[in-house]
Design goal:
The complex is a heterodimer. Chain A is of the alpha/beta class. Chain A is built from 18 helices and 16 strands. In chain B, the strands form 3 sheets. In chain B, strands 6-1-2-5-4-3-7 form a 7-stranded antiparallel beta sheet. Chain B is of the alpha/beta class. Chain B is globular, with a radius of gyration of 19 Å. The chains are: A alpha/beta, B alpha/beta.
């Protein structure tokens, strides 16, 4: 009998709207084994090609199927050290699961959910220690402790180099800590993974160090044999419409940082506050927009705003929503209102500098643009106003230039991203590598990890050749 | 963790602290700021660097106890540690020889003005300083300011010390009586607004240093954005100093009130906790 794709248990949508606890609860052993049975064990597996780091997917699933979870973890960790993170946040539908043969005729194997299952098992049991080899005497600096930096640091540490990670905030993890909310990625998972890598490999993390200010890139290049920049894309973009400076308008970065890094949802136990209104508009429909909208609805509930509304305003249609499928689905379940084919033209103030609404225009989809997506076109004379008291801009981010303040030799694009070789991460500057969002612009956790790993491999080769 | 090495009480609500932070002291320059977080529960607050000692590896901060975080910080003592001390952030002041400059300091703004006045004096400028506060109790560092100024005017709103005036009055006299190349003004936003309005009449370039809502201090959150004539800028990475004539002050003042209600709540909760602890201490001491 054909086995159906196994659903993952989730917190009831009504209940979870009132808390910040994890929504997706993870497979039980039974569910994981049942799902693993579905894998066809293809001779030429497409799923591996779909994975940015090339996890040996049929192999780890096979080991699990044979009830050999420790082997399964070992196989996973050949390519990916953070399965508990990736199982939760990867857009599997565009990657491994999107390439799964079963998906051609029915539903693909739930690779992400199985990955998370073995990742969580490893978190709880730690069966697969990272072995620290003999010290090579080489020193490497990694700038930024997000997905790219962490992946790079771990692979350098495994080679026996002395790795120092510089982080500008007070807590390591980058976007995993300040960006992705607790209900999607519990911070205990991130901290546990980082602490483990630090402990096993002797990696040093220096928080409160803003490279470009506290120290410069050139100083790092003097002091270390190699330097990797994985500073991500941290600079928020604001729409070029009137009214963006009214009180009540904020970037998704600000909103999410208050909530995730500073724990504003627990104010006043934690000192940082966060403001939310009864009628919230989130502009954009990517993962960050979903995270913002879902945080907003939880805050409304926490603040007793039973009649609160959270809108997601997106200029394209439902079919183009760039967010991870599961997050979009969860957001709809939680009661987020989606205003598709709608684009803001102005933010309206109340005369005292406080936002009171958004003026929008209706859009229709025209010809496909160079990204292949149909381009939204404004419909003439279709302006209308929505009453709104909080606006959250989730329009993407660009690399933070702070790190580059003193450097003229490092080639960067007009968009501010660093020019680096896709295979090796090498930049135009000697001894300097870069990878992740700082090179690609906002992308995914796993693609940043992939870039960090490729750079680490090249740094390892470079250091092996260096006398 | 960063250790508090020294603490001075400059007035009933203004405290000075020397913090051991060699990595910040090494790079600190006049005009820059640091982000401070007291403990795991604390918020990240920007405080201007009032002084630094590269050799000792210390940075001096001065703060007025206005909200929960600054009140809490004020209760800490030498030997205590704080969780975050990150910096130096923002651009340093553009120190060069301008000619005659006026440095206007309002209230706790004396702290950030001092290193700027000192550096300007060192660069060969004739420095006229104006220090103002609501009353005598809120003034400090008179001698230090005098030491780096060719002329020092002191005024208080209530006349309890120096001239009974607000800072724009002596400034107007100075601007009307001699050629001034540049003005620095640091203090409450409302003071900087009126100083900028006045100096615009005299067409004297004016630098103000803004202290806005901020979280990371590195350009990531955008909470600190101000409207200039050319569009929105971030105080943390584009500032903290700006051309006072280009700032949309009404927008700035409005944005500073965003978290007024929450600040009040946190302050009350803190005061309540302190009273409770004092009562318990009294009780158990008995």
């Amino acid at each position: 009998m054909k086995i159906k794709r196994q659903d993952m248990p989730v917190q009831n949508s009504n209940e979870r709207r009132g808390n910040f606890e994890e929504v997706a609860l993870g497979f039980t052993k039974e569910l994981a084994l049942k799902e693993a049975e579905r894998c066809l064990q293809c001779k030429k597996p497409k799923c591996i090609e779909g994975c940015p780091v090339g996890v040996l997917i049929p192999q780890f699933i096979k080991a699990l199927r044979e009830n050999n979870i420790e082997d399964s973890i070992k196989i996973m960790k050949i390519k990916n050290n953070l399965p508990a993170v990736c199982g939760r946040v990867c857009p599997q539908e565009n990657q491994c699961e999107g390439s799964c043969l079963l998906g051609k005729t029915g539903e693909p194997v739930a690779i992400g959910r199985i990955e998370r299952y073995i990742g969580d098992y490893e978190l709880a049991h730690r069966t697969c220690p990272l072995n620290k080899p003999k010290n090579t005497g080489k020193k490497v600096a990694v700038v930024g402790s997000g997905p790219a930096g962490l992946a790079c640091a771990v692979d350098l540490g495994k080679e026996g180099h002395k790795v120092t990670v510089f982080e500008s905030l007070h807590s390591a993890g980058g976007v995993l800590v300040y960006g992705i909310p607790e209900f999607r990625l519990p911070k205990t998972v991130v901290h546990s993974e980082i602490d483990y890598a630090v402990k096993c490999l002797g990696i040093e993390i220096r928080t409160d160090h803003i490279i470009g200010k506290t120290m410069t890139l050139d100083e790092l290049l003097d002091e270390y044999d190699a330097v990797f920049i994985g500073t991500g894309a941290g600079l928020p973009l604001f729409m070029k419409v009137p009214g963006i400076n009214y009180s009540g308008v904020m970037s998704a970065n600000e909103f999410l940082t208050r909530i995730n890094l500073m724990k504003a949802y627990r104010f006043p136990e934690y000192d940082t506050p966060v403001r939310i209104g009864e009628r919230v508009a989130v502009i954009g429909a990517g993962n960050v927009a979903m995270d913002s909208a879902r945080c907003a609805i939880r805050l409304q509930k926490a603040f007793g705003m039973e009649s609160g509304e959270v809108h997601v305003i997106y200029r394209r249609s439902r079919d183009e929503v760039p967010a991870r499928k599961e997050e979009f689905h969860h957001a709809e379940e939680e009661g987020i209102i989606f205003d598709f084919l709608t684009s803001p033209v102005a933010i309206l103030g109340d005369g005292n500098g406080i936002v009171k609404g958004i003026k929008c225009i209706r859009m229709k989809l025209g010809e496909a643009d160079d990204t292949g997506r149909r381009k939204p076109v404004a419909i003439e004379d279709s302006e209308f106003e929505i009453k709104i008291d909080t606006v959250i801009m989730a329009l993407g981010t660009s690399p933070n230039p702070v790190v580059f303040t003193d450097d003229g030799n490092l080639r960067r694009t007009k968009k501010g991203t660093v020019v680096a070789d896709n295979e090796t991460g090498r930049t135009s500057k000697k001894q300097l590598w870069a990878g992740g969002d700082v090179v690609t612009g906002s992308a995914t956790v796993i693609s940043a990890m992939g870039a960090g790993k490729r750079a680490a491999a090249d740094i390892n080769r470079f250091l092996a050749g260096k006398k | 963790m960063y250790t508090i090495l020294d603490k001075q009480t400059l007035s009933s609500v203004i405290k000075l602290m020397d913090i051991k932070a060699p990595h910040v002291a090494k790079k600190a320059k006049a005009g820059q700021f640091v982000i401070v977080r007291i403990n795991e529960f604390g918020e990240r607050i920007p405080l201007t660097i009032a002084d630094f000692d590269r050799k000792a590896g210390t940075v001096t901060i001065i703060f007025q106890e206005v909200g929960k975080s600054t009140r809490h910080l004020g209760t800490l003592n030498p030997g205590d540690k704080i969780a975050t001390f990150a910096g130096p952030l923002g651009h340093p002041t553009d120190i060069k020889k301008y000619g005659t400059v006026v440095c206007v300091a309002g209230g706790v703004g004396i702290a950030p003005v001092y290193p700027i006045a000192k550096a300007l004096k060192g660069a060969g400028n004739t420095v006229i300083s104006i220090m103002g506060a609501r009353n005598k109790d809120l003034l400090f560092w008179e001698n230090k300011m005098r030491a780096v100024s060719d002329e020092l005017v002191i005024c208080t709103d209530d006349g309890s010390y120096g001239k009974k005036a607000i800072v724009t009055e002596p400034l107007k006299e100075i601007l009307g009586s001699q050629k001034v190349s540049h003005v620095w003004a640091i203090g409450p936003a409302i003071m900087m607004k009126f100083v900028s309005r006045l100096t615009k009449e005299f067409n004297v370039p004016t630098v103000v240093s803004l202290n806005t809502i901020m979280i990371d201090g590195t350009g990531m959150c955008g909470g600190c954005r101000v409207l200039l004539e050319e569009g929105a800028k971030f105080v943390c990475v584009d500032g903290p100093e700006f051309d006072g004539h280009k700032i949309n002050w009404d927008s700035l003042l409005s944005r500073q009130r965003i978290y007024h209600e929450e600040e009040r709540k946190a302050s009350e909760r803190w005061a309540h906790k302190c009273n409770l602890e004092a009562a318990i201490a009294k009780d158990t001491g008995r």
